[in-house]
Amino acid sequence: MILPQELKEAISHLPSKEKDKLIFRLLKKDVILANRLLFELVSSESVEEKREKVKQQLNNLIERASVHFLSPGYLLADVRGMSGIINEHVAVTKDKIGEIRLNLFILNEVLSRNNKAIYLAGYERSYTFYVATVAKIFKILLLLKKLHEDYLIDFEDDLKKLGVLVGNNPLLMKTATYNGLDVNWLIELNIPNDLEYIYKDLKNRGF
Known about the structure:
This protein is 78% helix and 0% strand. It contains 11 helices and no strands.
């Protein structure tokens, strides 16, 4: 929503107490904004400290989901919940590095602990999980391309690990190849410069 200039001017001329009341009322309805202001104005935690707390939270959730593995579908639901936690963290802290690192952490840990069980569930039961995983990998690579190239080396180990994990599951590898994801981009740390075009073209063609 774009605020009309007249409204902006009217708000700017409100008495301080009235502005405070409006802000507090808005914050009650917007938890993300409230948490962002809490982090930026009050909290003494750094972005890295917040990221580490989220990582530990995700690790606990992954461990629980892995111990109580029921099916690829249930695991995918858990992963989507974890992705929501990352999205909230990024909305509050604007942690673009953490967005990549935490998403890589989820995929590497989930696949490390559940790759065999997902594979043994069969292609039909695991297909939706595989497609979602490939889409998540594309998202990570697209986020990486937005960073300065000097940052790429910081993610080398995690990307190579992810590439190997994909390769270790023949059905996941089949899904990746079919949907235009070259696992060598991860293993060789060689993300195409035209990745955004490749991704858009694949989506337009229904992959």
